Amino acid sequence: MDIKKVKGVGDALAQKFAKLKIHTVQDLVDNVPRRYDDYSEVICVSQIRPGPVTIKVTLSAVKSRYSRKGLHITEATASDDSGSVKLVWFNQPYRANALKPEEEYFVSGEFASSYKFFAITNPACELVSSFPVNTARLVPIYRLTKGLGHAQVRRVVKNALEYYNPEETLPEWLLNQQKLIPKGQALLEMHFPSSNQALAEAKRRLGFEEVFELTLASELNRQEFKDKHALEIPFKQKLIKDFVSNLPFELTDDQRRVAWEVFQDMEEGTPMNRLVEGDVGSGKTVVAVLAALGAISSGFQVAFMAPTELLANQHATSIYKLLESINYHQDILLLTGSMNASQKQNALQKIKSGDAKLVIGTHAVFQEKVKFNKLGLLIVDEQHRFGVEQRKKLQSKAKQMPHVLNMTATPIPRSLALTLYGEMDVSIISKLPKGRKQVKTALEIPENRQKLYKKISSEIDAGRQVFVVCPQIEEGDNARLSAVKTHEQLTKTWLKGYEVGLLHGQMKSENKDKIMQQFLEKKLDVLVSTTVIEVGVDVPNASVMIIEGADKFGLAQLHQLRGRVGRGSDEAYCYLVLSDNDEPTRRLKVLEHESNGFRLAEYDLELRGPGAIYGTMQHGELDLRVAKLTDVELIKSARLSAQEFARRGENLLKYSELNRRVSTLRTINNLN
Ligand code: ADP
Ligand code: MG
User: Fold this and answer.
1) Residues 620-650: pLDDT tens digits?
2) Could you tell me the CA-to-CA distances from 452 to 469, 490, 559, 573 in Å, in that order?
């Protein structure tokens, strides 16, 4: 239902909400507060101390005036039995008329010294007889956009909730079994909690529901997938053995195990849908090549997708080398957006005829005109960067479902992976190949930055390249955290005379590739960027990384970032610069000695909860709002409940709202 149906929402307001991706009443209600300000304790005027306060008062002496500087000022005296206090509003000319002297009000705001006298400045003020949303409660704080204020959003949400009566989504037996409160009550308490206890209950209820729906959607997709036919790809023992013995290195135990799991999946007549999770540098590519070799040697085509052109190029080169040893390299074809028309035409022809066996490319492979002859396996590198629509398109290119192998360097602890990647089987490569050097990691306080960059310049003189990573693109309250500002600072002063490039997510993808290419070709000494460099590009000569505002990131994410350096023969260094000069947190110190991404992720999970982990993933459409805040135990029990629901063979059509939500999730599931 359109948000304009809500009382008080016209075109102008609807447009502002649209900026927050809130279009319907449902969106509005699903948009849970980011946090709450606690104004729940109502005190007597005589008890007021500086700080946030709430009082229950009548108002008198309401008057407006202009200050000498032209500021509009409204003042009033607020009184209860114990005494009175001054209220002041700046530049709110509508205030004076809105206040009625004979009525009783809740007033919430900051009591502080202002213009030489103590007063509550710009307080919220609501009739005691109303349902207060800005005062005398845990007050919700929402995401805002320009021209949209807190009070306005709260009023609209309140109006929406009054009018919108949500259908129950969970079956009654489940509510009873899990002791969960009903949906309507949970939503009301989530937005306007009556107490901290009630808020916790609401979060539990809604977080459970989210995970339940997500898991149920995965379960149903999984069941459906099981009924689909895939091409059986036999395991060719001799060929694989030959290939492995010709590799320039010994496979690790983890690589062998995961490859074996993949081979077993592909032998089945049901389509594989497997995710290989492994740290940067853990050697996922060779596992994928093993799978690809299995498929092409049996006469199937393989599509190998990379998120960027650069990465596709790198893969093509390294896979060519790997397959050369057993003479399978002629079957490789690279398909990227930057090929010219006749190259493309030629490539498309080869894909269609089946001459091209292993097609490595970017999203160019998803285009309508790309027709495979006999697609047996789809490999998706850095799977979280791909949209589900794209994958669906590719699957529809095959007459039968191809097997799908996804790879990601994002370490998700198993307990969460089961929920988030519910539809996929997960294989984990947890150990790096032997002999890998650890990236030497050290924490730095901002005070030492100039020294640090000075040290860096001598590293550059010695022929090294440097990554500088910032948590945001533009300037916030702290200029150092902005990639744009840091780039400016380095080029103008600290690294003047060196070639410093800038890379961030708001740049066009051709430009991003161009900058990355320049860095790769050593035309740039330093690359300042946001986290866009996470994706697995290999720059062997870059051996130093500086991460600004390191405390803004999760451990797993920092670990992923530093995985960009240390890919060559040089000793690699990572400097984590804190956002202030305080003592470094214990959390970050762990990075100085721990080098296993999964252990770091587990640590994050324990310390900061699931939110820290979700934060490292790009989940696109699937936006877990409440579950981020909930604990792992709850997530587990919701998952088990969904499995029970599916096992019971419950008819989903009996629960219309649940059915609607789960159906939507089924189309965007898997976070891919
Ligand atoms: P990622 O898992 O990040 O995709 P890659 O597959 O790119 O890692 O592998 C990183 C590097 O490690 C490559 O140069 C690859 O040749 C090498 N490598 C892979 N497996 C092994 C191994 N078992 N022993 C030594 N080096 C390996
Ligand atoms: Mg990789």
Assistant:
1) 445 566 665 567 788 888 888 998 898 888 8
2) 14, 12, 20, 12
Ligand 1 atom with the shortest distance to the CA of 322:
16
Pairwise CA distance, residues 640 & 212, whole Å = 8
Query: For ligand 1, what atom is nearest to the CA of residue 250?
Result: 23
Three-state DSSP state, 34:
coil
The distance between the two most distant Cα atoms of the chain, rounded to a whole number of Å, is 94
Q: Is the C-beta atom of 568 inside 6 A of ligand 1?
A: no
Kindly tell me the number of DSSP H helices and DSSP E strands found in the chain: 23, 20
Q: Is the CB of 333 under 6 A from ligand 1?
A: no
Q: Which domains does the chain have, with CATH numbers?
A: 41-136 (2.40.50.140), 237-267+283-408 (3.40.50.300), 440-594 (3.40.50.300)
CA 242, 317, 544 angle in degrees (round to 5)?
110
The pLDDT tens digits of the residues spanning 228-279 come to: 777 899 999 999 999 999 999 999 999 999 999 999 999 988 888 899 999 8
Total-model pTM: 0.74
Ligand 1 atom closest to Cα of residue 538: 7
Nearest CA to ligand 1 atom 10: 281
Tell me whether residue 226 is exposed, middle or buried, using C-beta atoms within 10 angstroms of its C-beta: 0 to 12, 13 to 18, 19 or more. Answer: exposed
Distance 551 CA to ligand 2 centre (A): 26
Q: Which two tokens stand for residue 414?
A: 């198993």
Q: Measured in angstroms, how far is the CA atom of residue 360 from the centroid of ligand 1?
A: 18
93-to-47, 125, 155, 311, 379 alpha-carbon distances in Å: 30, 15, 20, 58, 62
DSSP bridge pairs for 53: 109
